[in-house]
Amino acid sequence: MTSEPRWLDEAEYRAWLGYRRMRLLLDAQVSRDLAADSGLSMPDYDVLSALSEAPDHRWRLTRLADRMLWSKSRLSRHVARMEQRGLVRREECPDDGRGAAIALTGEGLRAIREAAPDHVGSVRRHFIDLLTPEQVAALAGIAGVVLDHLGEPLE
């Protein structure tokens, strides 16, 4: 016997629906801006950003795929396209000959450094600057609670 679901009330439904629609529209707008400003896709930016934040500008492919919530094959295919553009290179892992590491090239570092100011401008214009400091703090708190619940603490 299954119990009756706890249906969302009107306020909860509006919050859930609003969050989903906002996320879709915001992601699409920021992605369009990124492509227009830098020629990078959002997946390109995510890979380059992760690599640029690593101390040695490299991540093991499996760890990067886990971080991005992508399959290894999806990331491998995307990295192959980025390699063709000179943004990243694939290297052998020094501690495991079977594994691959993805390293940021000089061109990739230049691309992320040039894209970042316009990207943050887009994020500010379409999201952050529309909110009060209290709303930003509340959103960070909400994100922290949900991410903790999902086992992925806010970094």
From TrEMBL:
Signal peptide: none annotated. The keyword DNA-binding applies. It comes from the Bacteria. Gene3D superfamilies: Winged helix-like DNA-binding domain superfamily/Winged helix DNA-binding domain. This is DNA-binding MarR family transcriptional regulator. It comes from Actinomadura namibiensis. Residues 1-148 form the HTH marR-type domain. GO terms for biological process: response to stress.
